[in-house]
Amino acid sequence: MHIRPLYAGWHAGQWRMPSSIASPCSLGRAPALPVAASRAHAPTGVAGMALAAALALALAGCASAPSPTPTPAAKPVAAATPPTASPTTAATPPQASPDADHTAGFAQWLSSFSAQALEAGIRPATVRDVLGKAQWLPRVVELDRAQPEFTRTPWAYLDSAVSPQRIAQGQAQLAAHSTALQAAAARYGVPASVITAIWGMESNYGSNFGTFRTVDALATLAYEGRRRAWAQTELLAALRIIDQGDIAADRMIGSWAGAMGHTQFLPSVFLAYAVDADGDGHRDIWGSVPDVTASTAHFLARSGWKSGEPWGAEVQLPPTFDHARADPAVRQTTAQWESEEVRSIDGAPLPDLAGASIVTPAGARGPAFLVGNNFRTILRYNNSVNYALGVALLARQIDGGGPVATPWPRDIEPLSRAQLQALQEALNRKGFAAGTPDGVMGPATRAGLRGYQRSLGTVADGYPTLELLQKLQAP
User: Fold this and answer.
1) Which residues contact 387 (CB under 8 A, 6 or more apart)?
2) Computed from CA positions of residues 366, 370, 375, 376, in that sequence, does the dihedral angle turn out positive or negative?
3) N or C, which terminus of the chain has less Cβ within 10 Å?
4) Is 398 exposed, middle or buried, given 0-12, 13-18 or 19+ CB atoms closer than 10 A?
5) Complete DSSP assignment for 225-245
6) pLDDT at residue 431 above 50?
7) Per-residue pLDDT tens digits for 37-80
8) CA distances from 272 to 2, 82, 268, 298, 466 (A)
9) Residue 350 near residue 358 (C-beta atoms within 8 A)
10) In whole angstroms, what is the distance from residue 50 CA to residue 55 CA?
């Protein structure tokens, strides 16, 4: 659940979950520190001196203030808004180059952000002992700015995401952790196979959930500047998790983008949805399978999962189908699609869905799927049609179902980002609005391409090919 390359033109949304804000003057009787913070050493060097000064200034006004007894922190409510970077307190350095020396600049930013963390209610000891030890990681900046040269085709993505090995591993994990998975399924109404599939997609069942310290990664992104406001919000959430004692700072490990644990929750999502299912007093998505499975199911349930309703089905479209209507924004009942001669691929009845859409990830030549509410709920986890399809197909095959029946058009070569940008530029020149040329296949580009295809009298499926690019560029 983190920001990742876009495979189907869907832009990943930012997770924005709430945390309470408190004045640093209300911290006089703060509860005991988490184990990791109580064992940490005071920061040293330039960063440590800057942080010490910031802490002294921030707490100076509290000397004569009363020390009220704090109330326990409430679990966040999903609809609330998290603390965001204050323009008056947060440092705003220019975007940082990963190969430059940022020792002084990062230390200065840490000092400024430390005051902001205190204002947000993070305890001074956590600010000093956790945030104060944050490290600048040039590799995080490199990964954040890296762009793949080629876009991945849906079939290449799914070949990896729903490989025979991953299916077999998923079946083994479902059997090994049946008690935890079935308990999560019963509690939240999300099938155990779907929870297992997300686990497999996000971290390959826990074998690879990242090696970056989350505080370091998010501090680097917050200082670096390209997505400063988002990273500062997530960094505050990470500090709050440590503050609450759910995980020690040195065990808070994840991806370079700040996603954590077995199913890659961002810190703000953890605060809103993580569950202590094993009853040990900690929400541990790093080491407790019951907590991992329950937290994942809880997120899906709160995001709109409808118990007992399938995600969708592979379908066969009629020869006269208007492929411009194969769009997640076009929704109608299954009965309405059936009236247009949309049929299941295997002759079975179509699932009864109230707001169903047709998606064709590879255009008119590839498979088509009728998808409903629960498919869109998976998109809340990662806003990529290919990702949601990967989860759905992996879950189906973990349950013993079959693969996609319609062949993928594997003879179509993927366009590079430069070629996609050239296609966008050519569409704009010819009057088919494709949005800002950026090499990313989004809704505007797809709409412009469909318009151009209609002008040619061909099927308007909006799928980019080298042949279409060559026609657009022809004099």
Assistant:
1) 7, 161, 201, 378, 379, 381
2) positive
3) C
4) buried
5) -TTHHHHHHHHHHHHHHHHHT
6) yes
7) 332 333 333 344 344 434 433 333 333 332 332 323 333 333 33
8) 16, 11, 7, 10, 45
9) no
10) 9
Residue 373 to residues 92, 184, 300, 342, 361: CA-CA distances in angstroms? 41, 20, 11, 18, 18
CB proximity list for 92: less than 8 A, separation 6 or greater: 225, 228
Output the 3-class SS for 90-128. CCCCCCCCCCCCCHHHHHHHHHHHHHHHHHCCCCHHHHH
Q: CA-to-CA distance for 59 and 264, rounded, in angstroms?
A: 35
Please identify which residue in the block is written with the tokens 């954590």.
260
266 DSSP 8-state letter: -
Instruction: Dump pLDDT digits (tens) for 168-215.
Output: 999 999 999 999 999 999 999 999 999 999 999 999 999 999 999 999
> Phi and psi dihedrals of 213, rounded to 5?
-65, 125
Find tokens 């826990």 and name the residue. Answer: 206
User: Which pTM was predicted?
Assistant: 0.80
Sequence-ordered list of residues with C-beta below 8 angstroms from that of 164, at least 6 positions apart, any chain: none
Q: What is the pLDDT of residues 89-116, one digit of tens each?
A: 344 455 666 656 788 899 999 999 999 9
What pLDDT does residue 58 have?
36
